[in-house]
Specification:
- By secondary structure, this protein is α+β, with helices and mostly antiparallel strands.
- It has 15 helices and 52 strands.
- A hairpin with a 5-residue loop joins strand 15 and strand 16.
- It is globular and about 90 Å long.
- Its main location: membrane.
Length: 881
């Protein structure tokens, strides 16, 4: 076995000793390839640049404000590779710093360990660490691989020795997908940097961002440091996801993930190239070879964790508002929604319900009927979710507020830098302390508080907010010491607020697993984990958690909404990018506050936002206390009709959405995706981000402009069938079309070649699940289509282990629709209708397992077939010309 591995590795690894990243001591570098040697945001002078041994050359052309004037020369001393040897997992080597007479980065590390791990044919890991000092590593679970793969790989690896570098090439095409010769490796105690050339400018991911889906390579700097910051294109936002996917020029795709949670930057430039800078931890890269975009996401989620399977009810419509003054006010909204027969599954409450905004309480004066309201929701097949913030009030008398008393007794609050008392911040209830979710007892503490509240108000899910963690007092109510290299590191990435403690905790505060400096961006994800696990234990069903702050692996525990978005047409458009990006990050349960959170909405904007939001994987309407109410029942009768119609469309398509979530939970694929994911060789699809897809088979083209009555939409090559105007067909070779879209119409198309399951809708999922299913059969140009359905009870923790789920595959070919059943559900699942598109002439007969069925031709060459068959059993439907 060992000799087989050796032979494989010898063909895999090529070593180029003595090969540097450029020739000679030269500053003659193409402007687009300048790697910034002075990334500090403060002004610098030529003398300071040259003290670092770097080139100083002012630039006065286009992008003069972005192109670095101080940059690394081609022979900047970096590290030399030696002692490269074969291991059971791949390769290891030593990196020795090259001597220099220049003023270098403070506390550089002279000797490093290099580990190259050949984990699978499509995944490898590059790890650079300090052999003499233990450094912080991100404590999330990743696959433990004991031995290198023995299967043929999609990649080849080349080492460069005298100026250390690693180059990765795709075996099939020779595309260079990772090449660290773009700039020198820098490895200091609080400044780590690695640059890589990119094979194309088609870069996606790198978030959380409030921008276009395609990441700009025009000297774009992206900062990762979780912050309570409303969506803005020039700020670090609520989550950190140092992962990108690149679609190469030939349509192959790969991904790169830097497993690091310290404050970080990724700077992109037109070469194209990307420079990673982080101020702690280690350099720990995963590279995924795809080769398709969806395969890249499957491989990424194999490392960070597959997305959670949500309860079925959570895919319905959610309604919330900061500003429900009483429980009776909240209940009245629910009653009016029912009276208007507008579908709704979940009612939420913001911090209004709390006593003095304290967690795990409810205001007995104004929300006295809250338990009764929740019971009424349950009796009507609906559910209840409330908000919880991590800041726990510390102002109550001893013995009067268990969340604080219990936390003190269990010593689970984050401590100040002295380690002698909890660090104190200020959030909604006033002065607060913060649970340390790295503490081994924090889960028990958190569950105790949730259980105690659930005993009073039987909630169904939890909304966790302010968990970056947010703090209205920068650092603490006592400030930060300011003399720590943690609070004042040698280099601070370009974070909003200019300091790491801005609107959060002092980073030298102490947690069980280390200092907040390292753990800050993990806070929200770890709270998600504790909350999800507590909900499972309390309710015995799948958990439902929505969090503002996220980090890689958050999708294992719940979903995300993109925060305090504005009620503007611009933010309506931007929300699509958020949906696309978080699916790339393995968090498919994603949506924006429908109609916007801040600023007053208007009827037209809210109608159009409901039409888009009906296709967010997570659908919630929510807004600010100071703004006008914006529930569907707050608008005109016509507006309510339009909103009801699009909600009915969503509920009709929920079986398809649920099936996509099942695929995500098992395979790690996206639920909603950009067109680039499905059509990576289509140059136009690579830049379209005002349309998106559910899976492979459904294209959503929303109206995003004020006053518009049509959509200028792109349709990639193939047949596309209008969803509601059954059978209206667009036969596209890859073109833009103007599609009629009056205010009462939502533009959604089935993609030719796919079978999409649906269901007759009702006013909530409990009732709609009692209705018959529908199959929409959309043949491609060859007359073929395929699709699948996953079905279970919608709440069980592990339907697979209980062997209580349905998994059916449908195929249409040669005028015949067949089903194959891989697993069955213990209850009957009735199929009531098949809509078959692109039927040119009325058939003489349609049969189910040889027995004639009722059918009718409807408009636009579509066939409506009525039947009643249990999908747990295979069937054959023949359309006889």
């Amino acid at each position: 076995m060992f000799s087989e591995k050796r032979n494989m590795w010898q063909t895999l690894i090529l070593i180029a000793f003595g090969f540097g990243f450029c020739h000679g001591n030269s500053c003659s570098i193409d402007d687009s390839e300048r790697i910034d040697c002075y990334p500090e945001t403060v002004p610098f002078v030529q003398e300071n640049c040259e003290k670092r041994g770097c080139c100083y050359k002012p630039y006065e052309g286009e992008n003069a404000d972005n192109i670095p004037w101080c940059y690394y020369p081609s022979d900047y001393p970096s590290y030399q590779l030696s002692q490269l040897k074969q291991t059971s997992q791949g390769f290891s080597g030593k990196l020795m710093q090259m001597s220099s007479t220049h003023q270098r980065i403070e506390n550089e590390i002279n000797e490093l360990d290099l580990g190259l791990y050949l984990e699978t044919p499509t995944r490898l890991r590059i790890k650079i660490s300090d052999p003499h000092n233990s450094r912080y590593e991100v404590p999330i679970e990743t696959p433990a691989v004991k031995n290198a793969t023995t299967d043929p790989t999609l990649y080849s690896v080349f080492f460069q020795s005298s100026q250390f570098g690693i180059t990765l090439k795709r075996q099939s095409s020779g595309n260079v997908i990772f090449n660290s010769s773009a700039g020198p490796l820098i490895y200091a105690d609080q400044f780590l940097q690695l640059s890589t050339f990119l094979p194309s400018k088609n870069i996606y991911g790198l978030g959380e961002r409030h921008e276009q889906a395609l990441v700009s390579t025009n000297w774009k700097r992206i900062v990762f440091w979780n912050r309570d910051q409303g969506p803005d294109s020039n700020a670090n936002l609520y989550g950190s996801h140092p992962f990108y996917m690149c679609i190469e020029e030939d349509g192959n795709a790969h991904g790169v993930f830097l497993l690091n949670s310290n404050a970080m930057e990724a700077e992109l430039q037109p070469a194209p190239a990307l420079t990673w800078r982080t101020i702690g931890g280690i350099l720990d890269f995963y590279v995924f070879l795809g080769p398709t975009p969806e395969a890249v996401i499957e491989q990424y989620t194999m490392v960070v964790g597959r997305p959670v399977m949500p309860p079925y009810w959570s895919l319905g419509f959610h309604l919330c508002r900061w500003g429900y003054e009483t429980s009776n006010h909240t209940w009245d909204i629910v009653s009016k929604m029912r009276a208007a027969k507008i579908p709704q599954d979940v009612q939420w409450n913001d911090i209004d319900y709390m006593t003095s905004k304290r967690d795990f309480t409810y205001d007995k004066a104004n929300f006295d009927t809250l338990p009764q309201m929740v019971n009424d929701l349950h009796n009507n097949g609906q559910h209840y979710v409330m908000i919880i913030d991590p800041g726990v009030s510390n102002q109550e008398a001893t013995g009067t507020y268990p969340p604080y008393d219990d936390g003190l007794a269990m010593s689970i609050f984050i401590q100040d830098s002295t380690g002698t008392k909890p660090i104190e911040g200020r959030v909604w209830p006033g002065k607060t302390v913060f649970p340390d979710f790295t503490h081994p007892h924090s889960g028990a503490y958190w569950q105790k508080q949730l259980q105690s509240y659930h005993d009073q108000v039987p909630f169904d899910g939890v909304w966790i907010d302010m968990n970056e963690p947010s703090n209205f007092a920068d650092g603490s109510t006592a400030g930060c010491h300011g003399n720590s290299t943690l609070d004042n590191p040698p280099y601070v990435p370009d974070v909003t607020g200019a300091k790491l403690s801005a609107r959060t905790l002092c980073v030298d505060s102490k947690q069980y697993a280390g200092v907040h400096y390292n753990l800050h961006s993990l806070y929200g994800m770890l709270e998600m984990k504790a909350t999800s696990e507590a909900l499972v234990n309390i309710r015995g069903q799948r958990s439902f958690v929505i969090s503002r702050s996220t980090f890689p692996s958050a999708g294992k525990y719940g979903g995300h909404w993109n925060g305090d978005i504005l009620s503007t047409w611009e933010d309506l458009q931007q929300s699509i990018v958020s949906v696309i990006n978080f699916n790339l990050f393995g968090i498919p349960l994603i949506g924006a506050d429908i109609c916007g959170f801040t600023k007053n909405t208007n009827e037209e904007l809210c109608i159009r936002w409901m039409q888009l939001g009906a296709f967010y994987p997570f659908m919630r309407n929510h807004n600010d206390i100071l703004m006008r109410p914006q529930a569907p029942i707050d608008f005109s009768t016509d507006a309510q009709n339009y909103m009801r119609d699009v909600l009915s469309m969503r509920y009709m398509l929920l079986p398809h959405l649920y099936t996509l979530f099942y695929a995500a939970s098992v395979n790690g694929t996206t639920v909603a995706r950009g067109l680039f994911s499905e059509f990576p060789t289509d140059k136009t699809a690579l830049i379209v981000d005002q349309q998106f897809m559910w899976g492979q088979g459904l294209l959503i083209s929303p109206v995003l402009q004020k006053g518009a009555n049509s959509v200028h939409a792109y349709f990639p090559n193939g047949l596309w069938y209008e969803c509601m105007d059954f059978g209206t067909t667009i036969d596209s070779s890859g073109s833009w079309f103007d599609v009629n879209a009056p205010i009462n119409q939502t533009v959604v198309h089935f993609r030719g070649g796919f079978v999409v399951p649906g269901q007759y809708p009702a006013v909530n999922t409990q009732k709609s699940r009692m209705n018959p299913l529908i199959l929409f059969v959309a043949p491609d140009r060859s007359g073929n289509a395929a699709g699948s359905l996953y079905w279970d009870d919608g709440i069980s923790l592990d339907s697979a282990k209980e062997s209580n789920f349905l998994l059916a595959t449908f195929r249409y070919s040669q005028n015949t629709l067949t089903s194959e059943v891989a697993a069955t559900f213990k209850e009957s699942v009735k199929l009531g209708t098949v809509f078959l598109f692109n039927v040119k002439t009325k058939p003489r007969d349609v049969t189910l397992n040889g027995v004639s069925l009722q059918f009718r031709m409807i408009e636009n060459n579509a066939l409506d077939i009525e039947l009643s068959v249990d999908v747990n059993k295979p069937f054959v439907i023949k359309v006889l010309p």
